[in-house]
Amino acid sequence: MRTGLSTIGAIVIIALGLAGCGKEGTDGASQEEAVQQSADERDVNSITVRPELAGRLKIGQPVMVDLADKILVPSRVQVDEERTAQIGSYVTGRIINMFVVLGDYVKPGDRLARITSPELTQSQLAFLRASSRVVVTQKSYDRAKHLLAADVIPLAEVERRQSELEIAQAELSAATDQLRLYGMGEAEIKELSRKGKIFPWLDVKATREGYIIARNVIVGQVVQPSDPLFQVADLSSVWVVGDVPEQIARDVELNQHVEINVPAIGEAHLDGVIIFVSDTVNRLTRSVMTRVLVDNPNRKLKPDMLATMHITDPQHKSLVVPEAAVVRELNQDYVFIAAGERRFQRVPVELGPEVARYRPVISGLTIDQRIVMEGAFHLDSERKLAELE
User: Fold this and answer.
1) CATH no. for residue 65?
2) How far is CA 270 from CA 75, 141, 235, 239, in A?
3) Of 13, 182, 213, 279, which residue is 20 to 30 A from 132 by alpha carbon distance?
């Protein structure tokens, strides 16, 4: 009996020992898997993809290309100041009639408005007096020359009358110039001199060809010479004006062609030429005013329309990656580097603005690294799903 009990005890001890060995082996395997799983969880930027997804990814390398960036400058359309004119009255007076409305096409000499003015009346009276004085002094001088020839009057008297004639002629010339300054034409001045009839009104006339784009007067309004009554502009070409940041103003040059986009007229891109780059910097905006001349034959571009100026930089060599290779998270750009068989590593990179579907590489990549060129978005989605599991 004692021997049987000893045998049973030995069996129990052996069984417990075997059980302990089995448990120790199982715990070791579990710990190893836990360590591996913990390592995978810590490296959230690493992912091993399924074979079917790996087949849809395109792997390549960054490349060096000649890149010409486009600077986008918010702009506005303005009238070409070389093709526009402000037209007003030369005298103080009252508007008694209007001949044009906004949008009318006028040529030089066309009537815009009619004005009456006491100043105009006084100037015509001064002209008539000066004209009459010239006639009188001319006759007096002619008689004096005949009397001098007959030795009736001395030479001094002839010279005095000649001086009076010259003064009268100077006064007439000044009065004529005054009428011209008030807007009277040569035909009207000759008519005034011939008939001696004072014109009770004066027409305000166009000084250049173009369209009436501003009319700041109505019938009955009293106007001053300083008041701008009409603005006439030739809109066959316009200016597009924008403020270029001072950091990139060095790339802007005269006679450089730029692309202009005006959202109000659709997606069409217009060609323009830079005709002016300011020599000073705006201290408030830290920008340089740039003016572009754009043809406008159909008058689709209208003053004060919003526009965008696309200024192309000179070409330069740059390391680039396709836009499709970039994923963005929390204001940081990433690309996936091939790290082995179906294994990829997401790395942060610093990239420049997109140019022709490419992103210039500033830092974080070299030309010899193999990256995911297409399919980065789907790969990043797989990575995020794996992170949640």
Assistant:
1) 2.40.420.20
2) 13, 70, 15, 12
3) 182
Assign 3 a pLDDT band (cuts: 50, 70, 90). very low
Q: Which amino acid is at 384?
A: K
Tokens read off for 177: 């110039």
Kind plus residue range of the DSSP H or E element containing 317: strand 316-322
H or E stretch including 167? helix 155-181
Provide the 8-state DSSP code for 375.
-
Which residues contact residue 387 at a Cβ distance below 8 angstroms, ignoring those fewer than 6 apart? 44
d(CA 383, CA 368): 24
> Which residue's entry shows tokens 């007003």?
88
For residue 71, what pLDDT is reported?
Answer: 78
Which amino acid, 267? E
Q: What is the DSSP secondary structure assignment for residue 366, as one 8-state letter?
A: -
pTM: 0.59
Domain-embedded: residue 28: no
Q: Provide the residue range defining the domain that includes 259.
A: 73-81+232-312
Q: Quick one: which H or E segment has residue 192?
A: helix 186-195
Distance, in Å, from the CA atom of 349 to the CA atom of 375, rounded to the nearest integer, reads 17
> Average pLDDT, whole number, for the chain?
84
